[in-house]
Design goal:
heterodimer, A: about 450 residues, alpha/beta, D-Maltodextrin-Binding Protein, domain 2, 2 domains, five-stranded mixed β-sheet, 19 helices, 11 strands, about 45% helix, B: about 290 residues, mainly alpha, MetI-like fold, two-stranded antiparallel ribbon, 14 helices, 2 strands
Chain lengths: ~450, ~290
């Protein structure tokens, strides 16, 4: 008797347990979003997530910072291999090729279509959309935080040499730096030559001048693309930078040496830098009291027909292997981020630019760009939309590009330390970079880029 | 006679050892075996599949000039930092052992550096050795361009050696001091009464008697200099400038995790493991002969 009783009790307890495990009606569906921003920017993303959760009651996004872009990708891969991946993940620009071959994503355009959201993809700035789109133009991920580099220049210093405008050509830059030096400025221009600066020094320079980084349209047309920046105007550019460095017109500033470029510019130590529009806010907040400065598009060599600059930053990927309910939530989240009002919130609180024309227009109608501290950031849009993207200025689609950037840093350091000549250094960059691309191609023997 | 506890059946002994064996297998042999397998294949990072390539990964690594440069840098780093850390620790320990004023304080304070995590101390040294803002800025002011770890590979190597040695001086110090204090006072006092000076006593009595400790620390320091240098390199130089401080362990990290080349990184760790094994065997085979155990 007692056995039957106990058995019944156990059954009842089990049934109760099952009932409790079922989500109560109206409980929001939770899904994970991993991102790679930290510090101030992470707080802004957290607010963004809170706003999304407050805007509706069906879904709840759980946002987790993984510290930086590299770690986000590494952790996502580890999680994916263990079957515990987040639904949405932020992947940086150069991780795009790796993501496309991973087979681990759900195409963003398909996701939105399946869940009944109509997204006007032509609304995206072409320079931004094409960076993340396939060679056929499909959007596999959504552009998120986006930036492009600008030249920051100290108006006070330039006034001393009788200039009221930023130099537009590299020839002018050379002359102006010389004049600044003669006027007693110790550090006319600051650069850094680590892997990170591959972005403004090599990738953006090449795009602005419509010069290829690699064959096969910078890799868009196949995994057998190989580097070729040792045969382009880039060689001339590095030669000039080195010449100016030797003449004391350019100083190297990096965190390892005590002061990075942005700090050097904001403190008035150096008069010109090239960095992301994302640093616009930082410079404004940390600048020396009363210093006058402005931003301009990166210069080009005289006689160059200027092309669009490339977008930098990251896009949002939706990973495969999640439930339909989570995908619904992800679609709602992406739609929320796509909204011009979110763009205004995002651009106000970070230095990033809006990614859609409607977002940009909305910001303009709100008077965002009319006054400090946001005035000047519209130059970034001008730079990104300077031309229709060409086959080469769509972007760069090379495997393991992070390693190629590291190789860029290594060779630039060798060049600036006079260990090798400019041409030798860039030739080695091509040789070692090609070995990286070879390896990437071998790892994916039967796959092609979408 | 010494009384030993024995088990009546061998299976009970095994049973007691099982938890430990499982731990070692799960956290050592299994991952190591996985690394060997990966090193013989080309792994797609997202787990989409792999291709068996035999020894190709090893061939491509060993034919790469950058990799040999990395081995040279690692050996240089190991030799100089081990020598420096042990020498300084030995001198300090000997002085502390002589009961000079304040030696009780030193005994406590000198172990602290070892307690600091490598990245944290690397951050501190980055500030101390910064050419424009730190302590070395003063030197640069007197002698412009003397110190430039941003472009000069030798300077960068010197920075990470200083940081690593600083950490291991504390560790070595404790072992040296313990060894020195284990030497019977009567021996030293007898030598002193025979009229030998401090230096003479050190070379003839203390040094021979602490050779087991010296040998132990030599093995540990060299092994650690291959492994524990990662945090310091990552924070201070990121392997630069121009690969001058791209030590083997850092290269494994950057190729594997940043470059997502899991197979190449696995092959490199196998080589690093073999190198450490060979170095350790070498030390036991040739240096241990000169060690006097009591």
């Amino acid at each position: 008797m007692s056995i039957i009783k106990q058995g019944l009790a156990a059954l009842a307890a089990g049934a109760l347990g099952i009932a409790l495990a079922q989500p109560a009606a109206g409980e929001p569906v939770k899904f994970d979003f991993w991102f790679g921003l930290s510090g101030d920017l992470a707080r802004v993303v957290d607010t963004l997530c809170k706003n999304f959760n407050a805007s509706q009651s069906d879904y709840e996004v759980v946002c987790t910072s993984q510290g930086n872009y590299d770690a986000t990708l590494q952790n996502t891969i580890a999680a994916f291999r263990a079957g515990k991946q987040p639904t949405v993940v932020q992947v940086y620009d150069v991780g795009t090729a790796t993501m496309m071959l991973s087979g681990a994503y759900k195409p963003a355009d398909k996701l939105m279509e399946e869940n009944g959201y109509k997204i006007d993809y032509s609304d995206y700035f072409p320079g931004i959309a094409r960076y993340y789109a396939t060679s056929k133009g499909e959007m596999l991920s959504f552009p998120f935080n986006s930036s492009t580099p600008l030249m920051y220049w100290n108006k006070d210093a330039f006034a001393k040499i009788g200039k009221t405008e930023a130099p537009k050509t590299w020839e002018d830059v050379g002359a102006d730096l010389k004049a600044l030096k003669d006027a007693g400025y110790e550090c006319p221009m600051a650069i850094n030559i680590s892997a990170n600066e591959s972005w403004q020094l090599m990738e953006q320079f090449s795009a602005l001048h419509n010069q290829p980084i690699a064959t096969k349209n910078n890799g868009y047309d196949g995994l057998d693309a190989r580097l070729e920046m040792n045969k382009t105007k880039f060689v001339q550019y590095v030669t000039d930078l080195k010449k100016w460095y030797d003449a004391g017109l350019i100083k190297i500033k990096s965190k390892d040496l005590g002061q990075d470029m942005v700090q050097a510019f904001a403190s008035g130590t150096c008069e010109v830098i090239m960095t992301s529009v994302g640093d616009h806010g930082t410079v404004g907040k940390t600048q020396k009291e009363g210093m006058n400065w402005d931003v301009a598009e990166l210069p080009v060599y005289a006689g160059t027909e200027r092309k669009n600059s490339l977008v930098g930053g990251a896009s949002l990927w939706v990973l495969s292997g999640k439930s339909d309910a989570e995908y619904k939530g992800a679609a709602a989240f992406l739609n929320f981020i796509h909204d011009p009002k979110t763009a205004l919130f995002w651009s106000t609180n970070t230095g990033y630019i809006p990614v859609t024309k409607s977002g940009f227009d909305y910001l303009k109608t709100q008077g965002f760009y009319d006054k400090a501290p946001y005035k000047g950031r519209e130059v970034a849009i001008a730079s990104l939309t300077a031309s229709e993207p060409t086959e080469i200025t769509r972007g760069i689609r090379l495997g393991n590009f992070t390693q190629i950037r590291a190789e860029f840093g290594t060779q630039m350091q060798a060049i600036f330390a006079n260990k090798v000549s400019v041409q030798e250094g860039i030739d080695t960059l091509v040789k070692n970079g090609d070995a990286i691309l070879d390896r990437f191609q071998q790892t994916y023997p039967d796959k092609t880029l979408p | 006679m010494e009384k030993r506890v024995t088990f009546s059946r061998w299976s009970i002994g095994i049973l007691f050892a099982v938890p430990q064996l499982i731990l070692i297998f799960t956290f050592f042999y299994w991952p190591a075996g996985q690394a060997v397998y990966w090193s013989l294949t080309l792994q797609q990072p997202w787990g989409g599949g792999n291709i068996w390539v035999g020894l190709d990964n090893f061939r491509s690594i060993l034919s790469n000039a950058d990799y040999w440069n990395s081995i040279t840098a690692s050996l240089t780093f190991a030799a100089i930092s081990t020598g420096l850390a042990m020498l300084i620790a030995l001198v300090i320990a000997t002085l502390t052992d002589r009961q000079l004023a304040g030696s009780r304080l030193y005994r406590v304070v000198l172990i602290w550096p070892y307690g600091i995590a490598a990245p944290a101390l690397a951050m501190a040294f980055r500030f101390i050795l910064a050419p424009e803002a730190g302590f070395m800025a003063v030197v640069n002011q007197v002698w412009p361009g003397f110190w430039d770890p941003g472009l000069d590979g030798t300077d960068a190597m010197a920075s990470i050696i200083v940081a690593f040695s600083w950490k291991y001086v504390g560790y070595n110090f404790i072992f040296f001091l313990a060894a020195l204090q284990a030497i019977p006072r009567s021996l030293i006092e007898a030598a002193a009464m025979d009229g030998s000076g401090v230096i003479r006593r050190f070379w003839d009595i203390q040094f021979p008697l602490i050779t087991p400790t010296i040998f132990f620390l030599l093995v540990i320091n060299i092994t650690e200099s291959f492994q524990d240098s990662f945090g310091i390199v990552d924070i201070m130089t990121s392997g630069g400038p121009a690969n001058a401080t791209n030590l083997m362990v850092y290269k494994i990290y950057s190729d594997g995790f940043k470059g997502l080349d899991y197979s190449g990184a696995a092959a490199q760790s196998i080589i690093l493991m073999l190198l450490i094994i060979v170095l350790t065997i070498f030390q036991f085979r040739f240096i241990e002969r000169r060690v006097h155990y009591r």
